[in-house]
Design brief:
Radius of gyration: 16 Å
Number of helices: 5
Order of helices and strands: EEEEHHEHHEH
Shape: globular
Number of strands: 6
Strand content: 5-15%
Length: about 170
């Protein structure tokens, strides 16, 4: 991110989200406590009017009215990462897939599934780019930068998991 980096925060059912980019195109969306979240830098400019469309779509998503985001995105990543991230965009709302199924869809050899997992883990656009929809082959919830509890909350919200009684 450069000196022209803009950021804002927005409330959500999973906590305060940090949105970062150029004010229009979103480069990063992170959750509280996320292990890969960027830290706000002094040279970044806070603009609470920025990312209006992203905030509107996030609100609609959490209200159950938006199954797919349509935003200007500008994430930094390798060509392989961007290829994996594009495949994440194709996982339908309310469904899940496994790391192995995603690797097969990308024509990545089974021996390189870890590379797919690493690219998913490097996804800078949590929620918007639905890496939370990728689960273990045994149905286990693994590997979510925002935390497994948040992954379960998002999948339950989307109807991919049954809500449990506490």
């Amino acid at each position: 991110m450069t000196a022209h980096t803009t950021y804002t925060t927005t409330d959500s059912p999973v906590g305060e989200l940090l949105l970062v980019g150029d004010g229009r195109a979103l480069a990063s969306l992170s959750l509280p406590g996320q292990r890969t979240a960027p830290s706000v830098r002094p040279e970044w400019r806070r603009d609470d009017e920025a990312f209006g469309e992203a905030r509107r779509q996030l609100t609609a998503y959490f209200e159950g009215r938006l199954p797919r985001f349509d935003l200007d995105l500008a994430p930094a990543g390798t060509e392989f990462q961007r290829r994996v991230w594009r495949a994440l965009d194709e996982i339908p709302y309310g469904t899940t897939t496994t790391y192995g199924e995603l690797a097969a869809r990308l024509d990545v050899p089974r021996a390189e599934i870890r590379a797919v997992g690493a690219a998913i883990g490097a996804n800078p656009l949590l929620i918007v780019r639905p890496c939370h929809r990728v689960i273990g082959a045994d149905g286990s919830m693994r590997g979510y930068a925002g935390g497994v509890e948040q992954k379960v909350r998002l999948l339950t919200h989307e109807g991919a998991l049954q809500q449990t009684l506490a």
